[in-house]
């Protein structure tokens, strides 16, 4: 995340900052009105990546949650497979429902994803 943001911020020209100062903008206004909109594709790409990593977290939930009533959906899917007679129709339905939110997040932010992840790929 830091690398992507560093590459995106290096791409921003310093003249924008100087022009905003000449127009009387405060440092907070420069950040909010100049930098954040220009770095939005990178911020959305990093945010989407972080949400998907948290959504798919299995190991910590499996190790730290001991009560069967408080387990997360990835752990529940793993428990389905650990059973002797796995209910495959329930497993496939739950897996499909589990995959819907990440797919929806990707389709909502897909135009930002390509621009955000390739922001610093080419040296200019």
Entry keywords:
124 residues, MetI-like fold, mainly alpha, single chain, elongated
Plain-language structure description:
By secondary structure, the protein is an all-alpha fold. The protein has a single domain, classed as MetI-like fold (Orthogonal Bundle). The protein is 75% helix and 0% strand. It has helices at 2-11, 14-22, 27-38, 40-55, 59-64, 73-82, 88-117. α4 (40-55) runs antiparallel to α7 (88-117) and α6 (73-82) packs across α7 (88-117). The protein is elongated. The protein starts with a helix and ends in a 7-residue tail after the last helix. The mean pLDDT is 83.
What's the structural blueprint in terms of helices and strands?
Layout: H1 2-11, H2 14-22, H3 27-38, H4 40-55, H5 59-64, H6 73-82, H7 88-117
Helix pairs in contact: 4-7, 6-7
Number of structural domains: 1
Named at the architecture level, the CATH assignment is: Orthogonal Bundle
Radius of gyration: 21 Å
Helical proportion? over 70%
Instruction: Summarize the helix and strand pattern as letters.
Output: HHHHHHH
Give the CATH topology. Answer: MetI-like fold
Poorly predicted tracts of residues: none
Question: Tally of extended strands?
Answer: 0
Short description, anyone?
With 124 residues, the chain is mainly alpha-helical. The protein is built from seven helices and no strands. The two termini are 21 Å apart.
């Amino acid at each position: 995340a830091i690398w992507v943001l560093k590459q995106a911020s290096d791409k921003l020209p310093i003249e924008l900052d100087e022009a905003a100062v000449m127009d009387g903008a405060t440092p907070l206004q420069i950040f909010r009105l100049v930098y954040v909109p220009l770095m939005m594709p990178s911020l959305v790409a990093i945010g989407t990546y972080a949400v998907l990593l948290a959504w798919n977290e299995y190991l910590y939930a499996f190790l730290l949650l001991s009560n069967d009533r408080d387990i997360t959906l990835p752990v529940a899917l793993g428990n389905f497979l650990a059973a002797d007679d796995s209910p495959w129709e329930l497993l496939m339905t739950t897996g499909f429902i589990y995959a819907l939110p990440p797919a929806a997040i990707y389709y909502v932010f897909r135009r930002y994803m390509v621009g955000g992840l390739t922001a610093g790929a080419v040296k200019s």
